[in-house]
Specification:
Elements (H helix, E strand, L loop, with lengths): L5 E2 L2 E2 L31 H5 L26 H9 L5 E9 L4 E8 L4 E3 L6 E7 L3 E8 L2 E7 L2 E5 L3 E4 L13 H11 L4 H8 L3 H18 L7 E8 L6 E7 L4 E7 L3 H8 L4 H5 L3 E5 L4
Parallel strand pairs: 4-8, 11-14
Antiparallel strand pairs: 1-2, 3-4, 5-6, 6-9, 7-8, 9-10, 11-12, 12-13
Amino acid sequence: MASGSKEGGRPLSRFPLRGKAGAGGFPPRRQKQAAPPTRGVSKRSAETPLVDPPSLGRAMHPNCVSVHPITMEDRELYRRILAIESPWSVTSVDLQSTPKEVHIYLAHDDLPTWPCAECAVPSKLYDPQPQRQWRHLDTCQYRTILHAEPPRSQCPTHGVRVVKLPWAEPSSRFTALLEALAIAWLKAASKKAVGEQLGLSWDEIHGIMERAVQRGLQRRQAEPIRHLGVDEKAFRKGHNYMTVVNDLTRGRVLYVAEDRKQESLDGFWGTLTEGQRKGIEAVAMDMWDP
């Protein structure tokens, strides 16, 4: 019996006959379309471009924003990062693979006068200094170092001074941004731990901390001090002590000196003005009596 014959009006097979395309209940097979060439482009770019090129002449959606890549050379990039302004400029950037370092070279305009670092009065150029270098924040995993030749000016009042640099404090071998990072970490970790993270020695971290203390003392105003607290504090092992003077009203440390002798406290009185010394009403002292 043929497979297509019927018995009792029903087909012998549960499956209909496969005939030509479009016959016997089967739809015609879809023809596969040729894939677009993907050589040299990513899979996503080959499937759906993010933004249609303007040359296609198709209108863009009003909410679509066209993003243009920023082309910037390395000198301009570091000038903006370091906030370098005239009369200073970035002349070159040297990337070294071994060791992994970025060296940034700065130069200044030939100016006949420079502001005094102490009083900002325009002063005559005295001489250019030899090239110095400052450690900056790392560029990714590359240690970053600045190079410059800071000039000196001759002020009628303060004499010969190195001009004020916009990226570093006087007599510092680190940029202000690197020192600010170290100070922020010192609030939560020891000098040894911070030095290990930044690749600096204990003495270098201690110098950064001392400069921060001096800046804070310079900003301190001559406010009246009514109640003082004087105490001795032991540190390290053995009989090592410090004398600490506190402002009990505002809860802040005013003075720290080595040892716990009379001479340790005598240095504090010279830091006060005459009005502050007269305004002291009471002193709470807990000191060892030799």
